[in-house]
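Entry 14. Ran structure prediction on the chain below.
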Amino acid sequence: MADKSSVTRMDSTYMKNYDAHLERHAKKKKRLVRRIMLFCLLIAIVAGSMAVYHFQQRSLHAEKVEEYKQLQTEMDTLVKEEKNLKEEIELLNNEDYVLQIARSNYFFSKDGEIIFKMPNEDPSY
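Output, structure tokens:
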């Protein structure tokens, strides 16, 4: 087997054209690799930004759902309170109910009636 170092290179126009062709091919390949790497980097940046945006939207949605639930429970409480207040308004329009409240809370009496205030405590014996 012969060593490559013992082989001499021919100095012809064909070899010069062939070397130029190989050099152009190597440059072309290098540009292609650079373009592919740039494209991959661009794709990675776009995918990363989309992922970040997606997770931000998910957290925002979770916050809004939680706020909605909280406001829904608050609304239910207010609806119940409104119902109770409407019932109380109806009762306060009734004269007998108003008189009963006045007698129990403010010690109003009927004619000839005496009111004794009893202590709320139980006897100690």
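The radius of gyration is 47 Å. Will compare against last week's run tomorrow.
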